[in-house]
Amino acid sequence: MKDKKVVFMGTPEFSVPVLEMLIENTNVIMVVTQPDSYVGRHHELTFSPVKKVAINNNIEVYQPEKIRKEYDHILEVNPDVIITCAYGQIIPKELLDAPKYKAINVHASLLPKLRGGSPLHRAILGDYHETGITIMYMAPGMDDGDIITQEKIEITDDDNVGTIHDKLSVLGSELLLKTLPSIFDGTNSRIKQDESEVTFAYNIKREEEKVDFNKTAREVFNHIRGLYPFPCAYTEINGEIVKLCESKIGESTNGEVSTITNIYKDSIGIKCSDKEILITRVKPSGKKEMSARDYINGRKIEELKGVKL
Q: Which of 44, 138, 204, 304 is the most exposed place for a label (fewest CB within 10 A)?
């Protein structure tokens, strides 16, 4: 496959294993990624993880502000195939149709479930018991192209967005490597998506990050692990924003809903609609992540117990 000219389009850390695999096994002639962004308190100009890999491998980097209007340079290099993975912009049809082997996408869900930009988060928020990777032909719509291959993984209660991210990032690279030969020799499958089975994974909005303890303990448990470690669920305790990093479902059904009902040695019990959720790790505003035990030890019990959230 070293004779195949590849343009890779991706941006975050999730895309890196796919790019590294392509560099090793094909001829990556260009990497297209999102423009550099200012990050952190000091607003430092930061390269995307994909750009860093490209620079380290002496590969041309192209960073259009709007790919819909700025794609001629990609056509000029005449790639055999375009491969995308979490690029972050809608790609125009003129670009999708140009390469000999068209445009292939590595998507982090079992399509047609969870089309969109946040399939990792939505799988856990939705209490899915499995997810996976789909290798697909790209189409002008959002993740609605024909499926080539898929592979599943289980989602357990020990998983969060971080663990699923890491598992699927590696799986995407491995599955694409297994799939590419059939794409190049024309023997691959091409399966239309069942539109009746479609669900969407829209990007997480800021207002969705706040935990609603009027829901069941299971829903709150999924909310916390479904947003950890990024962007992180939160609540307000005595006017302070506290991010909730880890939790487990408790047994107590006593107390008023959305209230801190129990302070344990290593957790904070909050009453949900059915039972309590036990918060075991937190990140107070402006401080490092810590165990609930350390958070509790820095405060008086009466400052916490009975507080309405």
A: 44
For domain 206-304, give its CATH number from 3.10.25.10, 3.40.50.11030, 3.40.109.10, 1.10.3120.10: 3.10.25.10
Place of tokens 């408790």: 250
CB 104 within 8 A of CB 22: no
Handedness of CA 256, 259, 265, 267 (dihedral sign): positive
By residue count, the chain amounts to 309
- Cβ burial of 74 (10 Å; 0-12, 13-18, 19+) is buried
Tell the CATH topology of 5-197: Rossmann fold (3.40.50)
pLDDT digits (tens, 9 = 90+) for 192-233: 999 999 999 999 999 999 999 999 999 999 999 999 999 999
Question: C-alpha dihedral over 90, 96, 101, 103, to 10 degrees?
Answer: 0
Distances (CA, A) of 298 to 37, 178, 294, 295, 308: 37, 52, 6, 5, 19
Q: Please give the Cα distance from 224 to 267 (Å, whole number).
A: 14
Can you give the pTM of this predicted structure?
A: 0.94
244 phi, psi to nearest 5 deg: -105, 115
